Amino acid sequence: MKRMNIGLLGIGTVGGGVFELLKSNLNEIQRKTLTDIKIVAVAEKDIARAKEIVGSSIEVTDDALKLVSDKNIDVIVELIGGTTIAKDLVIKAIENKKHVVTANKALLANFGNELFALAKKNNVILAFEASVAGGIPILKSIKEGLAGNKIEWVAGIINGTTNFILTQMREKGETFAQALSEAQSLGYAEADPTFDIEGIDAAHKLTILAALSFGIPMSFKDVYVEGIKALEQKDIQYAEELGYRIKLLGIAKKRDQGIELRVHPTLIPEKRLIANVNGAMNAVLVKGNMVGPTLYYGAGAGALPTASAVVADLIDISRSTNVPLHGFDETKIDNIPIYSIDDAISGYYLRIRVSDKPGVLAEITKLFGDKKISIDAMLQKEPKEHKTEADIVILSHLAVEKNINAIIHSIESMPATIGKVIKIRLEELSK
Ligand code: HSE
User: Fold this and answer.
1) Is residue 161 lining ligand 1, measured as CB closer than 6 Å?
2) Three-class DSSP category at 173
3) Which of 152, 193, 242, 257 could be 189's S-S partner, Cβ–Cβ 3.0 to 4.6 Å?
4) Measured from the CA of 103, which atom of ligand 1 is nearest?
């Protein structure tokens, strides 16, 4: 039987999962590949821990550089994470003509363009299914299953930690801080939870999804990012009364002259399947121009789900599956512009605190009329704390962001308005 030797860089949660999966499913994988895919060496700072996992028959070292230049190793699996050491090691491995499998979304979002070029030059595969939505084979679905389509838009719940937090806030009435500490104790959050709650982890993943959907370069620096820290319980409840759920979505949308790339809390109609994806689960909606909307759901993190994606890449390499890294031919990457958030087109939820006086609502709705933006739904509530005040909630039809911002500016300048207007974007996700 053919043999494929793997050097594993990092044996934390996912690395341990890869080791276990290859062992448990050995026969199944051999039956599919006619290849003995074997971890022959592990590089890990914590040598004792690594030995505990892999036993004595596999070489364990703390010298990762040794593995990336080891002639006996065919494929490097990089599970260290981050963009410093991991980047140097991936570059060295590629230069040494080794295929690389990585789950490192930050690395690809920031440096993917140069790494793909290097892989192409050295005629090796750089595979990264595990970098987006863990166990959901979303990149393969886009590159292969949907390859006959033009992708029109992608919208995904691609960060489990924030989805868990939003679920707890909605279902249990918890505060943001309570739900975050629960997510951390369950081990969902990134080492640095700001990457989760500020939307950066989702933006890394959206960058990769957009590159593969539209055949564009990795454009992380152009993604508009807004996390969930500022979300209030009140908005979750008002959204619910109006028939919506709030999710942190990564949205990539092709328009005539460019692409929108944005991560932010979003109202979604509660009747959409994706609005009912709860806890730490992930889901991605992809709209192809021929197939229509398609939905992918599953575990976005965790040892075995992520290992499932890593091993699928190893199997591809063993079969020498020659799908271009981007799914698009490298010479056909499109440098189409990315819209600034001011030019994004979306629906909007606005919450406005006002003094409860005659004429205030009329003045506000006139501002919408003047800008020719149609109001879709409205709610007025007397807050428990202040009987002389009112919360007005307005859902708008599609509008250009800068026009909404101009309306918000005018509302905030009205004498009856108290404090800032809360704005949350809204997507129907129907067509
Ligand atoms: N911290 C990530 C999440 C895990 O919460 O989804 C894997 O990317």
Assistant:
1) yes
2) coil
3) 193
4) 8
pLDDT in tens, the chain (431 residues): 899 999 999 999 999 999 999 999 999 999 999 999 999 999 999 999 999 999 998 999 999 999 999 999 999 999 999 999 999 999 999 999 999 999 999 999 999 999 999 999 999 999 999 999 999 999 999 999 999 999 999 999 999 999 999 999 999 999 898 999 898 888 777 667 899 999 999 999 999 999 999 999 999 999 999 999 999 999 999 999 999 999 999 999 999 999 999 999 999 999 999 999 999 999 999 999 999 999 999 999 999 999 999 999 999 999 987 677 788 888 889 999 999 999 999 999 999 999 988 999 999 999 999 999 999 999 998 877 778 999 999 999 999 999 999 999 999 999 999 999 999 999 999 88
Ligand 1, atom 4: nearest CA belongs to which residue?
301
- Give φ, ψ of 140 to 5 degrees: -65, -40
Q: Are 266 and 202 in contact (CB under 8 A)?
A: no
Domains and CATH numbers, the chain: 2-127 (3.40.50.720), 138-299 (3.30.360.10), 345-426 (3.30.70.260)
- Take atom 7 of ligand 1 and give the residue whose Cα is closest: 301
205 is catalytic: yes
Q: Is the CB of 300 under 6 A from ligand 1?
A: yes
- Cα distances from 137 to residues 124, 134, 305, 332, 381, in angstroms, run 21, 8, 10, 24, 44
State which amino acid sits at residue 217. P
- Ligand 1 neighbour 199 (Cβ under 6 A): no
3-state secondary structure at position 80: coil
**Full 3-state SS string of 333-391:** CCCCCECCHHHCEEEEEEEEEEECCCCHHHHHHHHHHHCCCCEEEEEEECCCCCCCEEE
> What is the whole-number distance in angstroms between the Cα of residue 196 and the centre of ligand 1?
7
